[in-house]
Automatic annotation (TrEMBL):
Domain N-acetyltransferase: 4-159
Organism per entry: Streptomyces katrae
GO molecular function, one term: acyltransferase activity, transferring groups other than amino-acyl groups
Native organism taxonomy: Bacteria, Bacillati, Actinomycetota, Actinomycetes, Kitasatosporales
Protein name as annotated: N-acetyltransferase domain-containing protein
Keywords: Acyltransferase, Transferase
Gene3D superfamilies: 3.40.630.30
Top-level taxon of the source organism: Bacteria
Pfam families recorded: Acetyltransf_1
Length: 159
């Protein structure tokens, strides 16, 4: 399956984003953080009403630039990213996930590039992300894309 598109999320994508984000959190953090902390992450980040509301916020406000989704040629959502520019010149990734079975196929890289471009158009010269754990499986992905450790759970790179 080839990646067909990275686009702004629409209201009909909310359930797919919620499921995908929950699957990615469980896959990556169940063994690292334990059931209680993973449950808190799921509650905080995967709530369908929250994601629906976030998609409904008009894009373009620098602190919140919205959700982007990556889709296969058949329209299936296989990845999602959200972000904004909450501090002058600093982009922030709030979430980045891909379907666990589609990792290492360019989905995350395409989403990261699209989010970075949106942030640059809103004045960001750097990009940051805070990870749920120090030994997250995503560290090698972010390192390949030029991120370095700012703290044990906070990474950053120039755009």
């Amino acid at each position: 399956m080839l990646l067909a598109d990275v686009r702004m999320a629409v209201p009909g994508d909310a359930a797919a984003i919620s499921r995908l984000l929950a699957a990615a959190i469980r896959e990556d953090y169940d063994s690292l953080l334990g059931e209680m902390r993973v449950g808190r992450l799921l509650s905080d980040h995967c709530s369908l009403p929250r994601i629906r509301a976030e998609i409904g916020i008009p894009g373009g406000a620098p602190a919140w630039l919205g959700w982007l989704v990556a889709t296969d040629a058949d329209g299936t959502v296989v990845g999602a990213v959200s972000g904004g520019v909450p501090v002058t010149s600093e982009g922030e990734l709030y979430a980045l996930c891909t379907t666990p079975g589609r990792r290492r196929q360019g989905v995350g890289s395409a989403l990261l590039a699209a989010a970075g471009e949106r942030m640059r158009t809103h004045g960001a010269v750097s990009q940051r992300i805070t990870l749920p754990a120090e030994s997250t499986p995503a560290l090698s992905f972010f390192a390949r894309h030029g991120f370095t450790a700012l703290t044990p759970v906070r990474l950053g790179r120039a755009l």
